[in-house]
Amino acid sequence: MLEQSLRFRSQSERDAYVGTRMDSSGTTSGEVSNRLRAMELPTQARRSELLQRYGIGKTTFYEWLKYLDIRARKDRQRHAYFTAEHVRQLDSLHRYYCDRGTIEGFLEAQRSVTVSEEAVVHPEESVREAFSGNGYRDRQFAHLVRTAQEWKAGVEVAKYAIAANLSDDDLPDDLRAAVEQAKAESLPKSRSAEAIAQDIQSWSGSSR
């Protein structure tokens, strides 16, 4: 029996499944669609199960598969089956078909829904992403580096600005002594008058 081959989480889900097979006895397409929403997606489904799930024939079923670009998979016994994702797509197409009487425009409608969902901004997720992961750590490190660079630049600017306004008298004794010593070493060494006179005589003799 088909009902025995499917797994349901509760009796209500089984009743909902059985209810989808009553379309020919007066149940409206909207009610069938609602029952499908309440059913658990099977992990695997055979073609015969899906034909009864949607109340359609083989020709329509294969048209739907071609429209959705769905290809059946094979189990170890080489029997064809459809995955839960396949059933989810077929369920969506079935609801669309029940509402409009045609499958035309379904793919375009699905793409519009996908784009709309991607465009929705979730503040909580945005905040969580902003303060988590490598991106947040990289931003924190870059901020620390920038702060250190600004502090270093400030120290250098202040150092040279203060130094430019200091005179020798503003220096403490040890630093003033060091400056005087540097100045003395940079000046030509004093020479005796005799040495200077000898240099003059040597220069005069060589110029004759």
Write the layout of secondary structure elements.
Elements: H1 2-5, H2 11-20, H3 29-38, E1 44-45, H4 47-54, H5 58-68, E2 73-74, E3 80-83, H6 84-100, H7 106-119, H8 123-130, H9 133-164, H10 173-186, H11 193-207
Antiparallel strand pairs: 1-3, 2-3
Helix pairs in contact: 2-3, 3-6
Note the main attributes of this structure.
mainly alpha, 208 residues
Descriptive overview:
This protein is mostly helical and 208 residues long. It has two domains: 2-119, Multidrug-efflux Transporter Regulator, Chain: A, Domain 2 (Orthogonal Bundle), CATH 1.10.1660; 122-188. It has eleven helices and three strands; from the N terminus they run H-H-H-E-H-H-E-E-H-H-H-H-H-H. The chain has a three-stranded antiparallel beta sheet with strand order 1-3-2. It is rod-shaped, with a radius of gyration of 46 Å. The model is unreliable at 1-10 and 12-27 (pLDDT under 50).
Concise overview:
The protein is mainly alpha-helical and 208 residues long. The chain is 69% helix and 4% strand.
As a percent range, the share of strand residues is under 5%
Q: Look at the structure and give the mean pLDDT.
A: 75
Percent of residues in helical segments?
55-70%
Briefly note the CATH topology name of the largest domain. Multidrug-efflux Transporter Regulator, Chain: A, Domain 2
User: Tell me, what's the shape?
Assistant: rod-shaped
How many DSSP helices?
11
What structural category do the secondary elements indicate? Answer: mainly alpha
- In spatial order, strands of the major sheet run 1-3-2
List how many beta strands DSSP finds: 3
Number of domains: 2
Distance between the termini: 136 Å
Order of helices and strands: HHHEHHEEHHHHHH
Q: Which CATH architecture of the largest domain would you pick?
A: Orthogonal Bundle
| Unreliable parts | 1-10, 12-27
Query: Main beta sheet, described?
Result: 3 strands, antiparallel
CATH class of the largest domain: Mainly Alpha
Based on CA atoms alone, the radius of gyration comes out at 46 Å
